Amino acid sequence: MCKSLLTSLFLFFTFAAFSQSSLQVKKDTVTVKSAELTIENETRDTLGFLYNTGSGHTQFKRLELVNLGDTALAIVGQDTITYKSANIGKSLQFKVGGADAPTAGDTSYTNAGLRYANIKVWRNGLFQYRDTTDGIMVDSVSGFIRFYPALAQADRVYIESLFGVSLDFQLSAGILTVTVQDTSITLPNSGLQLTGSIASNGNTISTYQWSQLAGPNTAAITDATAQTCTITGLISGTYTFRLTVTTVDGRQISDDATVQVNPESGGPKILRVNFSNTQAPAVPGWFNVYGPVSDNHVTATDPTTGWTIDNGGATWEYWTAFGGSNGNDDAGEVTGDDSGIVPDQVLKSFWFNYSTKYTTTDNLLITGLDASKTYTLKLVASRATGVSDARYGVWRINGGTELQQNALGNTAIQTVVTGVSPDATGKIGIAVYPSLDATYGNFSYINALIIEEE
Fold it and tell me: Are the CB atoms for 205 and 250 separated by under 8 Å?
């Protein structure tokens, strides 16, 4: 009796213990409640997923991804996911000054077909790096390319864009946008305010920074680290200012504003001339006069002032060449950040006269002036270092005394002459010849000439 009772109790407790879980088996279904189901087969050591091989059989398989050309991604044995268009890129090219192309002096190019692409640019066969001195900057969100320096006539530009897929999604914040409106003012002006219009789209802004990229002089920027800045010290000409916004995670976006400063109505006229052998990239506020000056009569009239710059004539009595050339486009000294007496592009290029000494012939003429007024002339000569002999700018104005300016390495000095009177026809004559004193060498340079009505 006792043995039968113990056996009954054992069976009861065993049944009670197993009754905490239940296993129910139906056709094509296994249901496990409050318990763990372990399935093992010959592929149990394979790290992956349980795969239905068909006919009710399963096995463990690794996840296999196959790239189907450039258009789709497939999971072997399962679905195919199309992840980008078969059109994976595009290219375009243009010649500056041609039909439907930018013109000389333009600094930017926008094409909606380049939006959200990886953009690469070649200019005259040279790949353009991201560089604000000699290269490009790109905003791929808008398909916008800015060129440094500005585009020149007949420049050939080739643009290649590639479209791909990024698996690194930033879902917490959208795209930060910055806009600064172009504007114009008329002197006198007590202070110009520029404000950046910001759409943060969930981004947190860390800093603002205003800077000047170009202009006829260096203006003063107050509150340069605020969303709104004040600019003073402007003179007539064209300026470019940039606002750069940085987020707390280090992303930066910027926009540039062009500011046209007009002279006071009825006020004195001013002309800033830079000289070059071939047409130079446009510099805001400057009038480029270019061309080989020996055996070539160069004349150029500024459309704003109506004044004309003339190299005198086409014979060698005006300009004598050295090695067949009277000009250079990149041998002047530069600062690298436009902090010199004139912008770097103006310092880079020049006309020069070699060996021939001054007699009485003027070889740089300013015509169209008002004979009843006087003028201030500012002259700059610059030659990069690396030569052993003396290099000077040597000038005579209206047949006056000889002026010398050391051109070697010059980025900060200009020669200023006031009270210069035109002749009865409205002409001022300048002689650009090597000095009669051999101490000053066999060259005379001129990079920049500024004429101001007094």
Answer: no
Q: How far is CA 413 from CA 72, 126, 290, 347, in A?
A: 63, 34, 23, 11
At residue 322, what are phi and psi to the nearest 5 degrees? Answer: -120, 115
Give the whole-angstrom CA distance, residue 111 versus residue 386: 43
The rounded distance, in Å, linking the Cα atoms of 384 and 55 is 84
Q: How do beta strands 252-262 and 183-186 pair?
A: parallel
- From residue 116, alpha-carbon distances to 112, 141, 166, 173, 363 in Å are 9, 5, 11, 17, 54
The alpha-carbon radius of gyration of the chain (Å, integer) is 37
CA distances for 122 relative to 119, 208, 256, angstroms: 10, 31, 23
Which residues face 254 on adjacent strands? 244
First CA to last CA distance, the chain: 135
- Spatial strand order in the sheet of 135-139: 108-110, 144-148, 135-139
| Per-position b or e across 80-113, b if 16+ CB within 10 A of its CB | eeeeeeeeeeeeeebebeeeebbebbbbebebee
Q: Which of 234, 230, 229, 232 is nearest to 216 (CA)?
A: 234
Q: Between residues 346 and 67, which one has the greater pLDDT?
A: 346
Say which range, 23-37, 82-96, 255-269, has the weakest mean pLDDT.
23-37
Assign 5 a pLDDT band (cuts: 50, 70, 90). very low
Contacts of 412 (CB under 8 A, 6+ apart): 340, 341
Beta strands at 308-310 and 299-301: parallel, antiparallel or unpaired = antiparallel
Q: What sign does the CA torsion over 214, 219, 225, 227 have?
A: negative
Threshold 0.85, pTM exceeds: no
Q: Is 25 exposed, middle or buried (0-12, 13-18, 19+ CB in 10 A)?
A: exposed
Question: Phi and psi of 366, rounded to 5°?
Answer: -115, 120
Q: Three-state DSSP class for 255?
A: strand
Q: Is 100 left (phi over 0), alpha (psi -120 to 50) or beta?
A: left
- The pLDDT score that the predictor gives to residue 82 is 53
In three-state secondary structure terms, 394 is strand
Task: Please give the backbone phi and psi of residue 64, each rounded to the nearest 5 degrees, phi first.
Answer: -115, 125
Cβ neighbour number for residue 271 with a 10 Å cutoff: 21
